[in-house]
Each structure stands twice: as C-alpha cells, then as structure tokens.
Amino acid sequence: MEELAEAEVRALMELQYFFPVPSPDPYAEVASRIGLDIESLLSSLRGLARKGVLKRVGYYYNYRSQSKEAALVAFMAADEDAMAKAVASDVLVSHAYVRDDPEYNVWLVIKRDSMDEIIRYSRKLAEVTGSKGFVLLTSVRTYKLSVKYDLYRGVSRSGPYAYLPLRPPRPEDLGVPAELPSLLRALPLEPRPYISIASRLGMTEAQVVEAARRLLEAGVLADPGAALDGEALGFKVNGMVVMEPSSSPEGLCESASRSEFSTHVVLRSSMPEGAWRYPCYAMIHARSRDLADEVAREIAKAGGARSYRVIYSLRDLKPGFVR
Fold first, then answer.
1. Could you tell me if 156 and 150 are in contact, meaning their C-beta atoms sit under 8 angstroms apart?
2. How far apart are CA 293 and CA 305, in angstroms?
C-alpha cells in the first residue's frame, strides 16, 4: 500500500469529490482550498502519477454516446493467463478480472459497435482460451458510474456526478467536436489545462470549458476529477454485488444507485435468456472484506432483494489499464 502524506490525501479527496466544474483552472482552485500553491500541488500530482497512484484527472466518456454496445461476459476459462494475453492490447475490453464464482472464473467488460460483434468476439475468446462456456450479460441500463475512493473511511464512495441518463446524445448533437470528449478524459497536469486541448481543436479556452459543462450536464461526460488506482492505496477488496429482485429489477437497481458506497450500478439481462438469475449489479471497493460485506448487505436489504451474492475479484488481468 502506498503511504500518502496528509497533504496528498487532502488533494486527492478534493480532486475526487469536489473537482471544480466548470473552471478554466481547476488545479489553482483546489490548491487554494487546501492551502497549497499550484506548483506544489501539480508537483505532488505528477509524483503520484509516476507512482501509478493517480491514473488521470479528467472525465469519464459515456460509451453510449459513442454509439457502442457493452456487455459483461463471464467465462469458464481453462487458462486465465491465455485470457490475459488475448485481451491485453484490446482497449475495448475495459475490465478483466478473475473472480471467485464457482462456475465462471473470468469476467470481462467488452465494448463493440454492435451486440453481434460482442458475441462473435466472446466466442473467439472462448475458443482460443479453452473456455468450456460463457454467459453474456448485456447492459440494459447503467444507472450510476462513479469509481472514487474515500481515503479516510476505507471504502468506495461515489461522487456528485455519478448518475447517467438512459439515452445520452452524441457530442455532435450538442454542437461539440466529436473528438473533444476523448481529449477531456485526461487533462494535462499543468496550469489552465484546457488551453492545450483548445489549441488542438482551434477553439478558445472558454469554449472548451463551456463545452465540458454542457457535455457533463447531458451525460456524455460523467464522474469528473481524479481517477485513482485503488489497489495501490490499499483498496484490495473489489466486490461485485449481484442481486435477485423480489419484484421490480428496475426498482432494485434504482435503490442500489442511491447508496453512496456503490460505484457502478447496472441492470443486465442474460444471453442465453435465463442463464443467470441476478439482473442487478453494484460494485463496491474497500480495504477489508468485512466492510465490503457490510455494505453489500445494506444495499441488498434496502432494495428488498430476494437474494444476493458478492463475487470478489482475485486477480486483475489488465493491471494498470486506464479506464
């Protein structure tokens, strides 16, 4: 676990939960709030980035605005190392974990232009890795996405821009250059970070800041601020809470999304139909399994789940991948 100085903790907490939007100079605002000069803050952030603690400062780009489909695919993989090798360079496989489910040991989030492409790719992966089978869990709706870490409480806690609309527009629909959201994913660690992005697109700084605000409001962008490597900070417990509804799956997911400790809540359907009985998913990250179990129990109880399980991560097959 990387040990942080108190000033680093305060900086990362501020950048995670209170990132200034919109602001042409977010680092200067954060530095002022925590009593540092901007160069000291940026020097600290660059050091944390070199250590791998800070992955990036920026925005999540909603894949639905990119006209892509996504699915969580669970494999009965015979060779986990072969799976890691097969997906290592694929930027559209954004999560790849070995998990402690007794039947399905490798879980991938796969994005493609169509569901048919996801199915074909999954079949190919199953073949080259000697998998005995797989179940494909399509994303019906993502209610929430905000992967942030409370460095004081030792558990994940979502930020203020966690909720995603069902059908976000494309950037072009808002009169914004199509490439801008991708550039906003990782802001430079320098004063007035939007200036360099503006110069690449022939825009002014003010235009980029205003566009970022509109993209965030529309749900094209989400979850602004610092993205951290939780495992490097001791958040080694990664629990996927899968829940079976007693009544409405939508109601269960909506309830789960209201928990401050859920970082990612998704309603899913299985292919083949009926192959998996848990349609509602919520992610939890914590420094201890006891704490994760407690939070999972609270989320399932609040939503009136008929049953639930926590499927824990055992190994990240794409360590260091910037999502």
1. yes
2. 15
Q: pLDDT digit string (tens) for 101-145?
A: 999 999 999 999 999 999 999 999 999 899 999 999 999 999 999
CB hemisphere CA count around 76 (13 angstroms): 6
For the chain, the maximum distance between any two Cα atoms, rounded to a whole number of angstroms, is 57
Residue 318: closest CA among 10, 112, 92, 38: 92
- 203-208 contacts, C-beta under 8 A, 24 or more apart: 203/177, 205/24, 206/24, 208/180
Residues 129 and 84 sit within 8 Å (Cβ to Cβ)? no
> Do the Cβ atoms of 129 and 86 come closer than 8 Å?
yes
**Has this prediction a pTM greater than 0.85?**
yes
Q: Quick one: which of 208, 137, 147, 149 has its CA closest to 179?
A: 208
End-to-end CA distance of the chain: 21
Residue 12, helix vs strand vs coil: helix
CA–centroid distance for 92 within its chain: 13
Whether 322 shows a pLDDT value over 70: the answer reads no
Task: Determine contact, residues 78/133, Cβ cutoff 8 Å.
Answer: no
DSSP 169: P
Six-digit token pair at 176? Answer: 């914004």
263 contacts: CB under 8 Å, gap ≥ 6: 144, 145, 146, 147, 148, 156, 158, 162, 283, 284, 285
Angle at 145 between CA 305 and CA 85, to 5 degrees: 100
Q: ∠ at Cα 205 (200, 209), nearest 5°?
A: 110
Query: In this predicted model, what pLDDT tens digit does every residue of 43-90 receive, in sequence order?
Result: 999 999 999 999 999 999 998 888 888 999 999 999 999 999 999 999
